[in-house]
Amino acid sequence: MSAIGVALLAALISWAVFMRWVFGDTPHWAEELPQFVLIWMAMLSAVWCSRRNSHLTAGLLGLWLHSAAARRVVDKLVDLILVIAMLMLVKAGWDLAMLTMKQHTPALQWPVGLLYLSVPVSCSAIALVHLGKLLSFRSTTTDE
């Protein structure tokens, strides 16, 4: 997912630079379209990271909690907190997206709310991922 987004972003920016230097004319979408791609790519990649449990962590939990059972309890608590936080972000992101849906970007004339819509979409998916982990009886941590 991220690789596709990065490749698309590189292609868009390369084309814009090529057009600017070779033809002296920058495409009208040269700033806005890469912003849309970058924001949506980052937000959707966060869902993938949540699913794979690959976010950057300090790894201190294993130093403090030696019991696998205690780590599972803390993991479930973290999943619960994340579900609640993501649901709050879904509501806030949806409200902001709807508030800005009638405003349009200068170059592409796309609704600004499309950018903000990435928040409720990705946060809904993250909430579902963590709800699944919360309801799962399987441990998400590795026992050493």
- Separation of termini? 31 Å
Count of separate structural domains: 1
- How confident is the prediction overall: mean pLDDT? 89
Q: Quick one: overall form?
A: elongated
Sheet-strand content, in percent, reads under 5%
Fraction of residues in H or I helices:
over 70%
The main pleated sheet reads as: none
Order of helices and strands: HHHHHH
Written overview of the protein:
The chain is mainly alpha-helical. The protein contains six helices and no strands. It has one domain (2-135). 70% of the residues lie in helices and 0% in strands. The chain starts with a helix and ends in a 9-residue tail after the last helix.
Short description:
This protein is mainly α. It has helices at residues 2-23, 32-52, 61-64, 68-99, 113-116, 118-135. It is found in: Cell inner membrane.
How are the secondary structure elements laid out?
Layout: H1 2-23, H2 32-52, H3 61-64, H4 68-99, H5 113-116, H6 118-135
Helix pairs in contact: 1-2, 2-6, 4-6
List the keywords.
144 residues; mainly alpha; 70% helix; 0% strand; membrane; cell membrane; DctQ
